[in-house]
Design a protein that fits this description.
The chain is mainly α. Helices cover 47% and strands 6% of the residues. The longest helix is centred in the middle third of the chain and has 22 residues. The chain is globular and about 55 Å long.
Length: 425
């Protein structure tokens, strides 16, 4: 009963009560937030027509990073980056931009039958972690839109769900085992499928991504299913809503059977070829909590497991130093210990909030904010990732050059300032 009461508690009130314990205030973050607000203009692009490999999009959008003269520049729009970047842009002043970004995603889905990794012709053979229904509902509720708009968007999301994520044959052979799905790429290459995960590269899949059912992906698809149930209840179609409820319950049951370790209090990716769980403990384990698919006992175990990942500067992506970061010549794994990433902090913090663990959520938010802020105060930039074990040191590099001025870092910094520092009425 206590858990149920905690779940129904007023989030804003609880967070407000915790403010007396915060260790950052408005003046601490004032300059950093000003920098972020002014930096957005560097990241906004508008390309309405195809230009060589760059796909034309009808509305302006935000790119992940821009650094003048950098060898690795962005002009294309990315799928999951866009969802996290708008977290710092919600508000009436940005309504046109935020809605336009969502419309661009749906435009690509209509045109290509998939929301590509990014808006390049050579990136249409894979997607990225699916956040479309979450994006839709947040826009719908933030801007108080009508059901005609919602119907159009949810119809597109259903198409994506069935065609892309639940497809069984090429070019979308993702649903492969007991109704669960994997990351994929049309070229059927493990490393490219791993890129679809957004975690390029990581230690979770042992360079065999096509053999794994990922925790995060299937939690995201569970979220789609409950979002579809919510939509059909809203429009009064209880029969279809019941079908989506059945789908989500099946996914939750299978995920708990295959992926949940009661001994460790964590979810693990599942190798369906070998029919065994993976061994890498990662922050993907908090996606089910974010999606609302864990029970109170599992939530409590997950919170106890935070200590596996929590360091001075925030949450490490995995809980240990991966071997292939130590052996020369092997693939760099930037999505692993000791690096921490903004989207994974956001997912974890929201999961903790959802189940009423506000103290833990605030502690992690403040650690992450302080890591970002300390680097900004010393170097004048934000990074795409941080070394959370030794925050004063640079992060471990990946397979592509490290970026600064990074969109989702900026956005999540601003969003967490709003949630944990700004006064609420």
């Amino acid at each position: 009963m206590i858990g149920k009461v905690r779940n129904l508690g007023n989030k804003a009130l609880n967070i407000k009560l915790l403010r007396k314990n915060r260790y950052l205030n408005h003046s601490d973050v004032k300059e950093a937030r000003k920098y972020i607000e002014e930096y957005w203009e560097n990241l906004i692009r508008y390309h309405p027509k195809d230009d060589e490999s760059l796909l034309g999009l009808p509305k302006p959008y935000i790119v992940p990073a821009h650094e003048k003269g950098h060898e690795f520049d962005f002009n294309e729009m990315y799928y999951w980056d866009s969802y996290f970047m708008v977290q710092g842009k919600f508000g009436r002043n940005n309504k046109e931009l935020v809605m336009g970004i969502l419309e661009d995603l749906v435009y690509m889905l209509d045109r290509y039958g998939i929301i590509p990794n990014a808006s390049r012709t050579y990136l249409t053979g894979r997607s990225q972690p699916p956040f479309l229904t979450s994006f839709i509902w947040e826009v719908y509720e933030t801007y108080d839109l009508n059901q005609k708009w919602l119907k159009k968007m949810m119809t597109a999301a259903e198409d994506e769900y069935h065609t892309v994520w639940m497809g069984k044959v090429k070019p979308n052979a993702r649903q492969v085992y007991q109704g669960l799905s994997r990351y994929y790429d049309i070229n059927y290459v493990h490393d490219l499928a791993e890129t679809e995960s957004g975690w390029d590269m990581n230690t979770r899949f042992n360079r065999k991504a096509l053999q794994y059912l990922p925790v995060d992906l299937n939690a995201l698809l569970y979220k789609y299913e409950i979002d579809f149930e919510k939509y059909y209840k809203l429009i009064g179609n209880d029969r279809v809503a019941a079908g989506w409820k059945s789908a989500s319950e099946h996914r939750k049951k299978v995920m708990n059977e295959l992926m949940w370790s009661n001994l460790k209090g964590l979810y693990y990716d599942y190798n369906f070829v070998k029919e065994k769980r993976g061994v890498v403990s990662s922050l993907a384990t908090f996606y089910p909590m974010w999606a609302g698919m864990v029970d109170e006992e599992q939530a409590e175990q997950l919170v106890k497991s935070l200590k596996r990942f929590e360091n001075k500067g925030g949450l490490a992506t995995t809980d240990t130093q991966p071997l292939n970061q130590l052996v020369p010549g092997l693939m760099p794994t930037q999505w692993a210990y000791p690096n921490g990433w903004a989207p994974l902090h956001f997912i974890t913090i929201q999961g903790l909030e959802r189940y009423g663990y506000y103290d833990d959520a605030e502690r992690i938010a403040m650690r992450w904010l302080k890591t970002n802020l300390d680097w900004f105060n010393k170097h004048g930039v934000f990074l795409e990732k941080y070394n959370v074990v030794n925050p004063e040191k640079p992060p471990v590099k990946g397979v592509y050059p490290s970026q600064t001025g990074f969109g989702w870092t900026n956005a999540i910094f601003e969003r967490l300032c709003q949630d944990y520092i700004d006064e609420r009425i």
